Known about the structure:
By secondary structure, the protein is an alpha/beta fold.
Amino acid sequence: MALSGVRIAGAARYAPARVVTNEDFERWLETTDEWITVRTGMKRRHWAADDEATSDFALEAAKRALEQARLRPQDVDCFIVATVTPDYAFPATACIVAAKLGAVGKAAFDIGIACSGFIYGLTVAAGLVRSGVYRRVLLVGAETLSKIVNKDDRSTAILFGDGAGAVVLEAAERDCFLASELGADGSVPQLLFQQAGGSRCPVSHASIDRGLQYIQMEGREVFKFAVTSMISATDVALARAGLTRHEIDFLIPHQANRRIIDAAVKYLELPRERVLVNLAEYGNTSAASIPIALAEAVEANRIGDNDVVLMVGFGAGLSWGAVVWRWSALR
Ligand code: ACO
């Protein structure tokens, strides 16, 4: 009998060894541990070494997720990496990860929608499995944001970290995917973007002199958008799933700023213990932040069979997305 449901069979994470603390920034930026803690909730973040790149982190998280699922790379039909910091502009980082795993010949592609990347990826991957196109899909959110942040800009340098979170999706009898809501508004891309490196503004000496290869962000505008989009995406996805806010067992929000999460959670009237927050340890790892938090919760046995997990992200695009997932215990 064909299986029309999907479940997560493994979830794992990886972060590079180098840790940068708030106090470290005090050595070269006009900032303080107190400012960063109060305004963002962040204390530490992991940064890549010079010779490390996104596929290295994605590979480690992928290996661990496969191990947890008791699967071999060859058992996977399709590899997806959600990232805005790929190893190269092309080929896709997913191709490199699949090859490093020894799974040459399988489908592999990237999704580049910044901090919403894991939510978009989960929706696409679940769709591929539920529709019967593939039996198993490996989805990784992985970033090396430290390589595209201006380390001398105190308003962005402190925010971003590196790492990867991976999930293995597989066909199942019971369907764990309950609903999804995805959206985007690209009318003002410059609210949050990396200007140089694409076809509108190729990398040149002039663009480098102006620092256009780095993340640029209108922090206050993004903050306001983040709170409203988290709330509305959550409400729409829940309605689609036929559930109420009170039926959420765990909320896993994108980890961009503690104050953004607090504002949305207050509005949603969710108890603190149901909201998974790890940005003190990782900072904002964009597409990796939700799967890293999910993997941590799985490792700690916090999420139980049948729990309703709502994952919600937002970011450059501007873009947003939420997925409602019914957890199925790992084997
Ligand atoms: N240390 C000390 N002072 C600082 C720092 C710092 N690290 N950074 C900024 N400041 C200063 C500013 O220069 C400003 O000074 P001024 O008043 O003299 O001009 C003052 O602090 C206040 O600056 P704001 O930008 O208003 O501070 P705010 O409270 O808004 O916090 C922050 C800034 C943390 C960036 C916040 O706006 C935020 O989190 N925004 C959303 C970020 C976000 O969600 N990004 C998503 C990215 S995801 C993706 O797709 C990649």
